[in-house]
Specification:
The structure is a single chain. By secondary structure, the chain is mainly alpha-helical. It has one domain. The chain is built from 5 helices and no strands. Helix 4 packs antiparallel against helix 5.
Length: 121
């Protein structure tokens, strides 16, 4: 949850999350979520809670897991975009160099043609 900038954003995300129960259905078959719950700090937290507080804590852990999972996806997408942008930048530089060479060659060809015309005159 550290990726969130402030409590207001957390509240907005949590409110939005509560409105989408379909997220929770996917957690039942998510083996990574099971491992997330088995972390020592999460197990200790859940052991200390009872009743309604225990259920709210489980919900909060589910929410935290989904946030962490979404953040990981976003990081992967960001890395892919950065690689693609770098590839495009490299291609742009190559095209710029090719254009410079082409311009130089055409200017050289023109100068040779002009010299040829001057010699013939």
């Amino acid at each position: 949850m550290n990726c969130l900038e402030n409590d207001t954003k957390l509240f907005e995300k949590f409110k939005d999350f509560k409105l989408k129960p379909d997220h929770l259905k996917s957690l039942d078959s998510d083996s990574n979520f099971s491992q997330f719950l088995q972390r020592e700090e999460n197990m200790q937290l859940l052991r200390r809670m009872t009743g309604d507080l225990h259920q709210k804590c489980e919900g909060l852990l589910q929410f935290e897991y989904l946030l962490v999972k979404e953040r990981a996806k976003n990081l992967i997408v960001k890395e892919n975009y950065e690689k693609e942008i770098q590839n495009i930048q490299n291609e742009k530089e190559e095209l710029f160099k090719e254009r410079e060479r082409y311009t130089q060659l055409t200017e050289y060809e023109r100068s040779i043609q002009e010299q040829g015309l001057k010699i013939d005159d």
